[in-house]
Amino acid sequence: MMKLPPLRIYALAYLVFLYAPIVLLPIFAFNDGTIIAFPLKGFTTEWFAQMFHNDTLGRALKNSLIIAVSSAVMATCFGIFAARAGSRFNFPGKGGIIGLIMLPLVLPEIIVAVSLLVVLLGMGVTLSIFTVMLGHILICTPYAIAILNTAFNSLDRSLEEAAYDLGESKLSTFRLITLPLVMPGLISSFLISFTISLDEFIIAFFLAGNEPTLPTYIFSQLRFPKQIPMIMALGTCLVLASIVLLTIAEYFRRRGIAKTGGKDTGGFL
Amino acid sequence: MSNTPLSRLARSEAASGYAMISPTAIYAILMLAAPLITIVAYSFFKDGYLTILHEFTLDNYIATWSDPIFRAILLRSLIVSGLVTFVTVVLAFPIAYYISFNVSASRKSLWIFLITIPFWTSYLIRVFLWKVILGYNGVINSFLGALGLEDPLRMLNTVGAIAVTLAHAYAPFAILPIFVSLEKIDRSLLEAGQDLGESRFMTFLRVTLPLAMPGVVAAVLIVFIPTIGDYVTPELIGGGKLPMVANMIQAQMLPLDNKPMGSAIAVSAMVVVTVISVAFLFLNRKFLRGQK
Question: Which residues, including other chains, have CB under 8 Å from residue A72's CB and lie 6 or more apart?
Answer without folding.
Answer: A140, A190, A191, A193, A194, A197
